[in-house]
Structures are given as C-alpha cells and as structure tokens.
Amino acid sequence: MLESAGGATLGASLTAAKRVTGRVVVYGTSGGEAAVTNWELVYRHQVHVIGLNIGVLIQAAPQIFGEVMGELFALIAAGVLTPGQPTAYELADGPKALAELETRATVGKLVPQPVTFARFPGRRDTVPGSLLRIGRDTRLGLRFTPAA
Q1: Which of the ends of the chain has fewer CB neighbours closer than 10 A, N or C?
Q2: What would the mean pLDDT of 44-73 be, rounded to a whole number?
Q3: Apex CA 65: angle with CA 62 and CA 68, to 5°?
C-alpha cells in the first residue's frame, strides 16, 4: 500500500493492508500528521510501516532509485501508466478553484489558464490580459505593451 496523504487516511491504509505480510509505504503528509501507537501496531495493524523520502533514497541508494525509475519509465512507455490531466480554470475562476481545492472536491493538479489572444496571423501567445495594453501597429498588426 502506498500512502501519500497521511493524517486520517493513514489508519484506513493500515487497515487495508494485509495482516502480517502487508506493507504500508508512507511517502507524504499532505493530510497532516498521524499518530500510530505501539498498541495499534501490535493488536490492530500487524503490518510493516515504511517511511520513504525520495531525496534520502537518491542519496543513500542511487542504484535502487535508478532501477525503480527504469521500471516506471518502462510502464509509461508501454501505456500501462499514463500521466494525469490537470483541471484547467480560467484566471477569473481562481476563487472557484481555490474553494474546490479547500473542500477537497478536486483530484490531481489545478492549473490557472492565462487569457489567450491572437498576436500575429497564424500565431497564438498566452499572457494574462490584465498585464497588457493593446495598441495598433500598422507593420505588425497588433502591438502589445506593458500596462501602466
């Protein structure tokens, strides 16, 4: 079992792991810290609990890290693992994105999308519109200058 959230979900991960031979690898604490007592490990969750910090792994066992990354890249190349797609929000919807994040209504990454505009025929650039003032340039079509 891979546990990245910590906090209240750690107990659920310990319960889900197979007794005696199960392993829970804890590699994150985004949900906060969690306390596990000796009594719980002896009588409730007879599992192996392993803490993992990637930086320490790279320093202490670079060969193992390289082997694991090789396996990961092979799974990606074979199409077994695919990267997740972020949820994009318009800049004006920033408060909505933050509210959804706060209530844990989102999954994965949230990405603010800058305003898109046409700069030259056939070319598109992305720059937050509030940072630019649009003026006319007869040679290039549109000219963009920093807003005052």
Answers
A1: C
A2: 93
A3: 150
